[in-house]
Records
---
Amino acid sequence: MSNSSSISHFLLLALADTRQLQLLHFCLFLGISLAALLGNGLIISAVACGHHLHTPMFFFLLNLALTDLGSICTTVPKAMHNSFWDTRHISPKDVLHRTVSTPQNHIYYSMKIHLDCF
């Protein structure tokens, strides 16, 4: 007889138990993520459009903004969904998707390839 187990889902800890606090967390996540998206979008557009900003420092800042943008677009919507719909589980497939195929990994490898060309 072998010892085996399977995982059907992971349990998430709730930020709040009352519905009013869950909605408050949803609104806070929404406001913070929209502010971060706007700020990163402004950084990306400023560096991309300003030819005098094409220096290594601003190239690094552009890559940081892209990484932050990818992080926000990957994790925050799921947290907002869980807070709004009061769900406390996530499937192993979703965990794997959010840890392995995040935009940060793609940006990291594209940066590595781009920097190796210099």
Note: The chain has one domain: 17-116.
---
Amino acid sequence: MARRAVDGPGVPFFLRVDLRNRVPTIALFELAVGEYRPLSAAAAGSAFVMTRPFAFSVDPADLLDEDAPEEPADIDG
């Protein structure tokens, strides 16, 4: 689904992170000819990879607290 840019100067990139469902998703859009067009997208369990406007990759599942490993106890004090 392409979103139309607002009037005036547009934001060149739009990153949507959706954590509302049990399957988180990430989508990157780029402004082109007045509309945001998809560049990259991924759901939990797969890698979201982008190279513009900077390099970044993550599995959307890593954004949830549920399965985060517990921090080790500080035994030094």
Note: The chain has no helices and five strands.
